Amino acid sequence: MSIQSQTVQTSTPVPSKKSIFWIGRKRREQMGKVLAFSMLCILGFLYFFPFYWTLITALKTDVQVFQWPPTFYAPTPQWNNFVEATNYIPFWSYMRNTFVICFFAIFGTLVSTTLVAYGFSRIYFRGRDIIFLIYLSTIMLPGQVTMIPLYILYSKLGWVGSILPLVVPTYFGSVAYVFMLRQFFRTIPNELSDAAYMDGANDLQILWQIMLPLCRPALATIALLSFIGNYQDFLGPLVYLTNQDQWTIAIGLNMFKNMFSTQYQLMMAASTLSMLPMLILYFFTQRTLIQGITLTGIKG
Q1: Which of 32, 59, 81, 192 could lock onto 77 through a cystine, CB 3.0 to 4.6 A?
Q2: pLDDT band, very low/low/confident/very high, at 12 (cuts 50, 70, 90)
Q3: Residues 11-23, buried b or exposed e (16+ Cβ, 10 A)?
């Protein structure tokens, strides 16, 4: 029996240091993935909860809104709050004004940004990089510094009280969008442009027939970011739009808060409706948005 037990003990494999290290490394990677997934779930809940609370409050009655302790569900959903919210203020008129401004602003941003970014990335001239650095440094200038001079300028031009101060500046390019699109242009091989030059094409033909089809993800990203910025803009319309018929949805919701501060359920219903375009846009274009942002930062 002693000989057999000794034989069994000697035949048991002893794990090597390399296998022990591999098992420990694999466990650490699994623990890291579990921890990262848990943190993402917590952050996702924190980001989703405000929207959930807004929607639940929009479905409550005025008594249930002030109930204590608060309930995290609507016992009797009041779907008519959404209809009443759009009747309390000219909601759809404000949405129409907002989309009109966004449309012209996106068009101006795409046209000006494409031309400027192509010039800084593909057209060679003396002092190009220095001029681009000076142009890029203007991004550090806060908007509060230029607000009063711009207002005086637009007032002398007679633009105050119209959407021109909100739309016309987009046709002169945006520094951040120019930088993003320039980075994307620099990822396109120069051989394509050189071959087009040899075939007799000019810069506009190269831009229209070669560059624009290749930079659709970047252009889509710029259009999305421009829409988000103009849709959520509150200060610009507040300063320049003096006529109530031209107000955007951001100013309209603020007026709703001032006039009907006790009707929280209607205020939350109007806020939920105003968030729907942003949510729908994000769910349908998130892949394009991520792809465009990723590709614009490949090459410096």
Answers
A1: 59
A2: low
A3: eeeeeeeeeeeee
DSSP for 110-156, written as a single string: HHHHHHHHHHHHH---TTHHHHHHHHHHGGGS-HHHHHHHHHHHHHH
Q: Is 200 left (phi over 0), alpha (psi -120 to 50) or beta?
A: left
What torsion do the CA atoms of 102, 108, 112, 118 make, to the nearest 10 degrees?
A: 70
- The span from the CA of 57 to the CA of 69, in Å, is 14
**How far is 224 from 202, CA to CA, in rounded Å?**
30
Give me the mean pLDDT over the 181-208 stretch. Answer: 82
pLDDT bin (cut points 50, 70, 90) of residue 298 is: very low
CA quadruple 286, 289, 291, 293: dihedral sign = negative
**Closest to 91 (Cα-Cα) out of 260, 281, 262:** 260
Alpha-carbon span 264 to 175, nearest angstrom: 39
Burial 33-49 (b: 16+ CB within 10 A, else e): eeeeeeeeeeeeeeeee
All domains of the chain in start order, with CATH:
80-295 (1.10.3720.10)
Confidence at residue 84, expressed as pLDDT on a 0 to 100 scale: 82
Per the CB < 8 A criterion, the answer to whether 166 and 237 are in contact is: yes
